[in-house]
């Protein structure tokens, strides 16, 4: 849905006739649009949501996340949602990278968010060492991105809230995934880098809605 202010700018340009000034106003509106999460990869209407609790300085997440994304792409009714969990022992680098990703989403939407995730994992040395250089996110000015990561309180708060939510759920290690059946609300938690076979088995288990022993290394809610 187009925000009210942007609709007014577009209507004004149409009434006044197309001009360079109108184009400038529209570009400014696009630049200042703030997107909101959660950041979803894949169809937002999918029945199944796999939420990955991850740390951008976690070497296991660095290996696992591209595999998980590729698996989600191959599924017809599954999407992926990111949940920040920067671990304390990865220090300031993990928090800063989480803020960069959150701000990329805020400034450029889900595509920019996932592009930042990919680039960070490609460039980081992991285990709290961070990365050198800068990110190149389509449609997001890097100086704006860094300024947001340093100054934007809402983005910082989102990360803190997600970390607290993970703690309340008993999640202390990354990567951990929770699979949710959006039709019934039932969930299952899988600790560690669950492969495609395990993910499909968990989905099948949830679809059957049977009361049985949880899968190995998992918790049913």
Q: What would your notes on this structure say?
A:
By secondary structure, the chain is of the alpha+beta class. The chain folds into 2 domains: 33 residues, no CATH class; 181 residues, Glutaredoxin (3-Layer(aba) Sandwich). It has 7 helices and 6 strands. A 6-stranded mixed sheet has the order 1-3-2-4-5-6. Helix 3 links the parallel strand 2 and strand 3. Helix 1 packs antiparallel against helix 2, helix 4 runs antiparallel to helix 5 and helix 4 packs across helix 6. The longest helix is centred in the middle third of the chain and has 33 residues.
Average pLDDT number: 87
Low-confidence runs: 1-14, 18-32
Query: Can you identify the CATH superfamily of the largest domain?
Result: Glutaredoxin
> Largest beta sheet: what is the strand line-up?
1-3-2-4-5-6
> Based on DSSP secondary structure assignment, what is the total number of beta strands?
6
Strand content: 5-15%
Which CATH class of the largest domain applies here? Alpha Beta
Number of domains: 2
Note the main sheet: 6 strands, mixed
| CATH-defined topology of the largest domain | Glutaredoxin
Annotation field: number of helices: 7
Secondary structure class reads alpha+beta
Shape: globular
Descriptive tags:
6 strands, 2 domains, six-stranded mixed β-sheet, 7 helices, disordered N terminus, 221 residues, alpha+beta, 52% helix, globular, 14% strand, Glutaredoxin
Structure summarized in a few sentences:
With 221 residues, the protein is α+β, with helices and mostly antiparallel strands.
């Amino acid at each position: 849905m187009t925000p009210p202010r942007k609709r007014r700018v577009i209507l004004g340009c149409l009434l006044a006739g197309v001009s360079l000034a109108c184009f400038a106003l529209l570009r400014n509106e696009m630049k200042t649009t703030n997107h909101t999460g959660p950041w979803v990869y894949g169809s937002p209407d999918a029945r199944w949501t796999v939420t990955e609790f991850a740390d951008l300085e976690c070497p296991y997440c660095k290996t696992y996340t591209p595999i998980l994304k590729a698996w989600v792409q191959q599924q017809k009714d599954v999407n992926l949602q990111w949940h920040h969990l920067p671990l304390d022992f990865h220090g300031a680098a993990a928090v800063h990278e989480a803020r960069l990703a959150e701000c990329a989403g805020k400034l450029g939407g889900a595509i920019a968010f996932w592009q930042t995730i990919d680039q960070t994992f490609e460039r980081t040395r992991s285990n709290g060492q961070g990365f050198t250089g800068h990110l190149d996110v389509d449609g997001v000015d890097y100086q704006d991105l860094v300024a947001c990561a340093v100054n934007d309180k809402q983005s910082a708060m989102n990360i803190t809230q997600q970390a607290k939510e993970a703690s309340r759920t008993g999640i202390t290690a990354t990567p951990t995934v929770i699979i949710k059946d959006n039709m019934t609300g039932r969930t299952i938690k899988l600790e560690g880098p669950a492969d495609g076979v395990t993910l499909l088995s968990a989905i099948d288990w949830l679809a059957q809605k049977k009361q049985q022993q949880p899968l190995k290394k998992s918790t049913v809610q």
